[in-house]
Each structure stands twice: as structure tokens, then as C-alpha cells.
Amino acid sequence: METLWLVVLGTLATGYFTLAGFDYGTGLLLPFRRRDEALSRMTPFFLGNEVWLVAAVGVLLAAFPRLEGELLSGSHSVFTLLLAGLVLFMAAVQLRLWWWLVFTGALMVSVGWGLFLAHLLDAPPFVALVMPVLFAVHGWVFQNRRWALFPVSAALCALPIPLAFGTIDVSGLMAHPATLTLLAWVAIPVIPLVVVLQWSIVAISSR
Amino acid sequence: MSAVDLARLQFATTTSFHFLFVLLTLGLVTLLVVMQTRFTITGARVHERMTLFWGRIYVINYALGIVTGIVMEFQFGLNWSGLATYAGDVFGAPLAVETLVAFFLESTFLGLWIFGWGKLNRWLHLSLLYLTALTAFASAFWIMAANGFLQNPVGHRVDGNVLRLTDFGALLTNPAFVHALPHVISAALTVGGVFLTGVSAYHFIKRTPEADFFRRSLRMGVVTTALATPVLFTFGITQLNVVSELQPHKNEAASWIGLPLGFMILIGLGLTVVSWLTLPLLARDAVIRMRFPLYLMVIGIPVPFAAAIFGWLYREVGRQPWVVYGLLRTEDAVSHVDAGQILLSLIVFTSLFVVLAGVDWVLIARAVRRGPDVAPAPVSPLVVTL
Q1: Does B232 map to a domain?
Q2: Enclosing domain of residue B213
Q3: What is the pLDDT of residues B260-317, one digit of tens each?
Q4: Is the Cβ pair B78, A197 closer than 8 Å?
Q5: What whole-number percentage of chain A has pLDDT above 70?
Q6: Which residue has the higher pLDDT, A170 or B255?
Q7: How many domains are contained in chain B?
Q8: Residue whose C-alpha is closest to residue A139's, from A110, A166, A117, A159
Q9: Transmembrane helix as a keyword (chain B) (predicted)?
Q10: Partner-chain contact B63 A94, CB within 8 Å
Q11: Is the peptide bond before A31 cis (omega within 30 degrees of 0)?
């Protein structure tokens, strides 16, 4: 049961970092690119990418209720930075507000994830800069359509997940089997369904 | 202020802002379903243009509402880790089902609907809007189930110092849930109806040349309001009976608690009466030719939003000092975080949300003023472009 839920959570987190990663990367590279073109290339993917985070946090709350609070409240101000960045980034991208707001939002989100990672790994704060760099590389690969490199940069963006999971001992923090069984019925069919549907958005919008 | 007070204030602020977006989203998506169904069946251009015009407003509101929702979700872990620790096994289940089945799927269907405009078979495209609406209502369903549990905890047993889920079905037959759900849904439909009416009235005041377009919209708005408000009112009253049984001390939770309740009841009653009085005046456009009701319709747009916030204030403040009624006190649920950190996030998110609500207002107002029939955007006519 434990392994199953770590896999589900890992899948959702990987989905978030590999997909939203190129959104943030696109945002970080905006000062150096043709901005309208870069943003419209990302638009069809955008909403689908960001919702993986919502799903991941939902699973974290229900399957690991005693972990979620510790993780989040333990880095309260880091998440304030991260979420404020996410609010600015999402609003600015979806409404095509000023490009520097997209950039600032992306920077806040990626530094926020970096700080959270550094906190989990007990690493010095400058390690936080790894995340903006990885996202920027991933964004570059996406924007230049180097599809052969895409799995590589995606894997790099997801690399912090096993590192972070390695620092956490979940035994005793998980929900009771009754709750987990119920959730399994929901989570396991939904994730592949969303993947197929999101894939069709991409297929349709590139027609 | 203590950490508990700040965390409560932040929760109240975030939820209130989030709910304003949610109400309009739910109300509009339902009306869009009607519009696009008519377009798909009849093929009439006016229904297509209505779907596009109101759909654009819906998408703007959804895009900004989603952002407040994300902050909302994180807040449980950030400020209320005691709630997840104690009741997460039970309370977390409907919340997780909401994020996965409803929200995760809803945004994906919506994305397909937006980018599939003009590219998919008409019926397939319509079914995507149905699925978006269905998952939006599912969202409301699961959120209200979770909230119903906090109001009246059922389906659990106490196991040491945590709660365990014993009967998921009991969460769904909880009286604190079954009466509140239709109340919230009819509130959203009322918001949608009043919004359609008010915006259409604005265009009649401006004498926009789109008379047929806005006559249809105005009628749809008035009829929706007239159908939704009696349901809204009825389930409001039945809830008062439920509350007096389940939470007998609700009215003593704060000295001013009767005030929002009173305002909400007055607004609900007012909207019911006014919408039914307007119905006969729809004949031969009497209400449009009289003109002065049009101004009232525009002024009326924020009224049901205010009533909804009053309703939540009563429901949530009235539950104090409990976060899980009778089981977990609010002060025991708050995270072990410095008051300063909570204050920082309170200031940051409150100011961001004020700006966000302002931007939502400005963008919707701009889309409204621009009226129907805008030159198609490069990606999809539904993608928000300024």
C-alpha cells in the first residue's frame, strides 16, 4: 500500500515538474526570446500542466495526512513566496499581462521549489538555484522543439523528486487502509484518463 | 493578534475571494450548456454568438478563480496542519476526490472545449462542455461533503488521537451536506441569472444595436433567477432546522452572527419576489421599454455575491470554537508556525487577491463593453486575449 501511494504521488509530482517545468522555463527565458511567439507556443499546454500540482497536493493531503502539514508548514515562508509567484505567473500568462510579470512569477516559483528542495536535503540555500536552471534548460528544449532532448530535460526536472522522497520516512504518516482503498479506486483510473485527454488537447491545437 | 486569529482571518479571506469566482463559474457554465445545446440542435448563429460571448467571460473568470483555488488547497497544510493530522483520514478523502475527479478532469475538459472550438464535431464539442459542467458540479459536491463533515462529523471512529474513516456513505447522507448542496448550487445559478440579466440590461441602457442577442440573454437571466431563487430559499430554510438540531449554540458563537444571516435572508427573499414580478414584464419587452428596471438590474449584479458571503460567514463563524464540530478545537488545529509568518502570507495573499478580483472585474467589464462578435483570436476564439 505504501509503495503504491508513493508511486501515485511520485507520478503526479513528476507530471507537474516535467510539464509545468517548461512553462516556468519559458517564463524565465522570456527576456531573451520573441515573447509573443514563446507564450503562444505554451498556451495550449498551460492549464493542463499546472493542474498536476493541484492533484499532487490533493493526494498528499488524503493519503499522507500527517506528512502534508509538516512538509508545508515547516517551510511556511518558502511556500508564501512560491504560491505568490504561482498566482502572478498564472494570472499573467493566461491574461497576457506584462511579460516581466510572467518572468518574475516564473522566477519566484522556481526559486521557491529550489528553496524547498534545499530545505528537505539540508543543503545550503544556493542549491535553490538548481531549479531555475533546470527549468530554463527544459523551457529552452521545449521552445526550440528539440524533441529528442525533451525526455532528458524532463527527467532532469523530475530528478529532485526521488531525492526529496529519499529524505522522508512515510511509515506511520499514511492514512488508514480504509481511506487508501477508497482513494485508489478514484486515483488509478483518473490519472491515465487525464493523460489521454491532455494529449488530445495538444493534438487538436496543433492541427 | 495570535497565530490562530491570523490563520482564521486568512482562511476567511481566501475562501471568500475563491467563492466569488466559483459562484460565477458554476452559474455561467450551466447557462452555457443551455446556449450551446440550442446552438448544436438548431444551428442558429445567435446561439453560437451567445456561447462565445458568455463563454469568453466564463473563461476569464475560471482562469483567475483557479489561482485562488490553488492557494486555498495549500492553506490546509500551511496553516492548519493539526486538522490534517487529526481528521485527514476522513476529511481528506472527499477533498482528494474533488481535486482528482472534479478539478483535475474539469480543467482538462475545459481545455479541450477551448482549443477544440471549430475543430471538433459539433456534438463532441458540446459533450465536452457537458463534461466540464458535470465535473464543476462534482467539485461543489465533494467540497460541500468535506465541509459538511466539519459541521457535523459522521462516518468516523476515534482511534487514539486521530479519526478513522468507517463509513464513506455517511459523509454523503450527512444532513449538514444534503441540504447545503442544493442551497449552494441554486445560489450559483442565481448569481449566473442575475449576472446575465444585469449585463444585458447594461447593453439596453447603452442602446447597443444587438437587441435580439441581449433580449434573449436578459430573458434567460430572469427565468434562471426565477427558477433558482425558490429552491435557494427553500433549502436555506430547511438548513436552519438542521442547524438548530446539529449545532444548537450556533447563534451564540458571536454577538453579531445574526446580522449576516438576516441580510442573506432578506436578499434571498428580495431576489425571489423581484424575479417573479419581472417574469410577466418580459412579455412584449415591457421591462426593457420601461427602462428604469434596467438600472436596477445592473445595480443588482453584486447583490447575490454579497448574500453568499453572508451565508458562509454564518455557517463558518457559527461553528466556532470548533473546526471539527465537537471534536477538534480551532486553536488545536493551527500549525506550529510563528504568527509573523502567517501575517506575512496573510498580507501577501490578501493584496494579491484584491488585485486579482480587481483584474477579473476590469477584464469582464471590458469583455462586456466590447460586446459580442469580436474578431477571432489566433488560437481559439475562447482564449483570453487583451
Answers
A1: yes
A2: 179-315
A3: 999 999 999 999 999 999 999 999 899 999 999 999 999 999 999 999 999 999 999 9
A4: no
A5: 100
A6: B255
A7: 1
A8: A110
A9: yes
A10: yes
A11: no
